[in-house]
TrEMBL record:
It comes from Parnassius mnemosyne (clouded apollo). This is Carbonyl reductase. Belongs to the short-chain dehydrogenases/reductases (SDR) family. InterPro entries: NAD(P)-bd_dom_sf (IPR036291), SDR_fam (IPR002347). Keywords: NADP, Oxidoreductase. Transmembrane segments: none annotated. It holds the Pfam family adh_short. Gene3D superfamilies: NAD(P)-binding Rossmann-like Domain (3.40.50.720). It comes from the Eukaryota. GO terms for molecular function: carbonyl reductase (NADPH) activity.
Length: 288
């Protein structure tokens, strides 16, 4: 019997680190803590070692194709397959509600486009019946989009990655050429790039589930809640350890038929397509 393997991207701090901690306690197999910065990653492992937890470490920059290939090759050589993949690596530019084109591009690269590289290179290693979880956000619900054309395109049941990529490219192009309108995005267009990237990620989850259905792999996305981490500048209603409970439930305990879903931090499965709902993120929650 080969070793079971779980991988968490961007897991040297915050919710990712708490998920690794929970997996080390409950998952009967090998857990990988990964990070873009090797020093920070190894420091995080050392901290967990003090708690008697022993994840393995590997450098893994989700935006660097060579890094992804290197990690893929390592896992393939050591174990052949993986059982759990949690795509947690993300960035939230808190410098302001509106960002420059370059900043928007970087936010989209890290929060969405990196998943396409992982899908291409890492998904094939996921064992039949395995579980993939994409950490999204309340910014990832379709209600964050107010542009009728893109609501219709994204809520099409025959949605493809091409459609999603065109949506992302439309946004970036409109930022570049000055045609972006704040009313196209909820909450007067605040943190627009983050919303666009996370909506794209949640939408991609649905497509990925369709493609992996024949192998009985479950792919879900979730909003972990407003968590007190460095990413939210310490604003939030619960700790990273508390926030890790639902992701751990999804990959370890959830029934097999939980697939292709958008899940709220309290385990509720929400209708991702309900664009009239008020599940979208409101910037004022950061100021409360």
């Amino acid at each position: 019997m080969s070793n079971k393997v779980a991988i968490v991207t961007g897991s040297n701090k915050g919710i990712g680190l708490s998920i690794v901690k929970g997996l080390c306690k409950r998952f009967k197999g090998i857990v990988y803590l990964t990070s873009r910065d090797e020093t920070r990653g190894r420091t995080a492992v050392a901290e967990l070692n003090k708690l008697g937890l022993h994840p393995k470490y590997h450098q893994f920059d989700v935006t660097d194709r060579e890094s992804v290939i290197k990690f893929r090759n390592h896992i393939q050589e050591q174990y052949g397959e993986i059982d759990i993949l949690i795509n947690n690596a993300a960035i939230f530019r808190e410098t302001g509600c509106y960002n420059s084109y370059e900043e928007n591009k970087q936010i989209v690269e890290i929060n969405y486009k990196s998943i396409l590289t992982i899908q291409e290179l890492i998904f094939p290693l996921v064992r039949n019946n395995g579980r993939i979880l994409n950490i999204s956000s309340d910014c990832g619900h379709l209600s964050n989009i107010k542009n009728k054309y893109w609501i219709d395109r994204l809520s099409n049941k025959n949605l493809t990655l091409t459609n999603i990529n065109e949506f992302v490219d439309w946004f970036l192009e409109s930022c570049k050429n000055g045609t972006f309108k704040k009313e196209h995005i909820a909450d007067n267009g605040t943190v627009a790039a983050y919303r666009v990237a996370k909506v794209a990620l949640s939408a991609a989850t649905i497509v990925q589930q369709r493609e992996l259905e024949s192998r009985n792999i479950s792919v879900n996305s979730m909003h972990p809640g407003l968590v007190r981490t460095g990413m939210t500048l310490g604003v939030g209603f619960y700790s990273a350890d508390e926030a890790a409970e639902t992701p751990l439930y999804i990959v370890l305990d959830a029934p097999e038929n939980l697939k292709g879903s958008y899940i709220w931090y309290d385990r509720r499965v929400l209708d991702w397509y309900d664009y009239n709902a008020d599940y979208y993120f409101q910037i004022e929650t950061l100021n409360k």
